[in-house]
Each structure stands twice: as C-alpha cells, then as structure tokens.
Design brief:
This protein is mostly beta strands. The protein has a single domain, classed as Jelly Rolls. The protein has a seven-stranded antiparallel beta sheet, with no helix packed on it. It has a seven-stranded antiparallel beta sheet with strand order 3-4-6-13-8-11-14, with no helix packed on it.
C-alpha cells in the first residue's frame, strides 16, 4: 500500500449518523402558506480537508450532520494560494454524488478509471461515485482567487452501487438568464427555474440547484418542488427570505421550511446565493469519512474493497 493510502486510512475521521438519531436533520413539514419560511440559520465552521485546504464546513458539521438528502456542503474562497494549492490528492468515495460548483479559479480532476478534465470558473461538475471511485481534485492555478462549493448528495440504497458517471459542465452549458423581474442573474445547474432547465441528467433526488446574483432590492419569487428539503447559502452580501423577510448574512445557510416557492431579495447590496432543493430519501445514513452507506457492514466492506484495490471495480 502506498504512503498516501496509509495516511488516508490512518487519518480518516468518523461521522456516523442515522435518520433515527438526533444528529440527522429531518425533512421539513409542508407549511400551510406557499412561500417557504426560514426555519434555522447556521454559519459554517473553519476546517481543512484534502492536503490542508482551508474551507468552511456548512453541512457535515456537529450542529448539522446532514440535511437529507444533502450530506455535506463546503465553501472555499481564498486568494491565498497557501489555502488551496495542495488541493485534494487521491481519495475514495462510494455511495453518493459529489457536486463541485466553481465560481472562480480552475480545478483539475483525475480518477482511477482514466477520466480527467478541468472545472473552470462559472462551471460545475456532477460526479456519481456510485459503487466507488478514487479521484483527485487539484487547483489548475497557482495564484488568484479560488472560490466555489462542494455539495454531497446522497443516493438511495438501490443506487449505492450504480456505475460511476461524470458530467463536466462549462459555464456556457449551464442554463443562464435574468432572475425574474428583479435585477440579477441566475445560473441553473439542475432542475427547472422559470423555464431555465439545468443540464444535469435525471437523478433519484430530483434536485434543484442554482447560483444567483441579486442586484437590487426587488423581491424575487422562485418555484421550488413541494416536499423537497431546501436551503439557501449566502456567499456574499445579505438577503431577506420568506414572507417574514428573515435576514440572512454572508457565510450563513438558511434552512427552509415547507412550501412551494422561495421569496428572496437583497435589500442593501449586491448579493450572491447558492440554492439547493432535493427529495429526502428517509433512509438510514451511515457515514465514515468518504463513504456514505446505509449500514455499518457496508462501510466496513467499502474500506475492505479500498484496501484490496477493488473499490472502483464492477
């Protein structure tokens, strides 16, 4: 076994959660009124991942272990190369999907199946790890701003061992347009927003995922799938959300209650947001580092397969 694999197996931290445990965020109940209200506001916590990459962990922290079907949300944003330049060397995944949203900078990925490419600023990647993959994500640049998100989306038990799949999506492949009647722009990665349909293929969680820039204080109302778990992360500026105009500032996630629409405006300054909604799976979640399965036995098998070098084999 090479040194990088030994370090990974020795240093992996554990997070084990079940849908029945207190650490699991249940899907919100449907509200009587159509617009979604803010149920909870949290800030990310500083941490590091990969080879010392500094970031803020928003979902996957002690206060929010998961938000079914979302397992993790990391925010990275720095113009200091020392914060990101060593990137994320080879590491495994099984049982879920990783979504990389690049706002600025470039990230090169390679995997054990021979796939490779570059995720550029304004683009995204939707990777289905499925039965297993070993991949790396390394900055393509040595200077300048590196900014974006990584979101982990769970797979149902029936799809945990599905084939691996990538969608590398450049900026011009995303569905972009004006944000309703208000000033601003939207870039849709998955789902349908007012006729703008994101290019991500059909997924079990029926996701809605987009970034938006709000340029003025006019109210925008965006349809969201009823029954889906939904959140808004404010990347810059500050917004007001819902019929109560709940303020949410930069660096915070707003977990939304039930309803059919998101009402949002930027009352004082240009603001950037990431919005996600997904159908909750309501299945047991057992996570250990880079593996997300339904049982502890499946986690043990994932580690055994990784050590044996067969994690990514069908």
């Amino acid at each position: 076994m090479d040194s990088s694999r030994r370090l990974f197996l020795a240093g992996t931290g554990s997070v084990v959660a079940s849908a029945a445990l207190a650490g699991c965020q249940k899907a919100p109940a449907i509200a009587a009124r159509s617009p979604r209200r803010v149920e909870r506001i949290l800030h990310g916590i500083p941490t590091s991942d990969g080879d010392g990459v500094r970031l803020n962990r928003v979902i996957g922290q002690p206060a929010l272990r998961n938000l079914d079907p979302f397992i993790l949300l990391d925010r990275f944003h720095s113009d200091d190369p020392d914060a990101y330049i060593r990137g994320f060397p080879d590491h495994p995944h099984r049982g879920f999907e990783t979504v990389t949203v690049m706002l600025e900078g470039r990230m090169r990925h390679r995997d054990s199946r021979g796939n490779h490419g570059v995720i550029g600023g304004g683009g995204a990647q939707w990777m289905t790890a499925g039965r297993g993959i070993i991949h790396s994500e390394m900055p393509e640049q040595e200077q300048g701003l590196m900014s974006g998100f990584q979101l982990w989306v769970n797979l149902p038990a029936s799809e945990k061992f599905c084939p691996q799949f990538y969608q590398d999506l450049g900026r011009d492949q995303l569905a972009q347009g004006k944000l309703g009647a208000a000033g601003g722009r939207i870039s849709v990665i998955a789902g349908n927003v007012d006729g703008l349909v994101g290019p991500v293929r059909e997924r079990p969680t029926e996701p809605l995922l987009f970034t938006a820039v709000l340029e003025d204080d006019r109210l925008t109302s965006i349809d969201t799938p009823e029954g889906h778990t939904a959140f808004v992360f404010v990347g810059s500026g500050g917004v007001e959300i819902g019929p109560d105009a709940t303020p949410v500032r930069e660096g915070a996630i707003a977990i939304l209650g039930g309803g059919r629409s998101l009402e949002v405006r930027a009352p004082a300054e240009r603001s950037e947001i990431l919005v996600a909604a997904g159908k909750p799976l309501r299945e047991p979640i057992v996570q250990y580092g880079p593996f997300v399965m339904n049982t502890e036995a499946e986690i043990r098998q994932a580690f055994a397969d990784y050590r044996a070098g067969v994690l990514d084999r069908g």
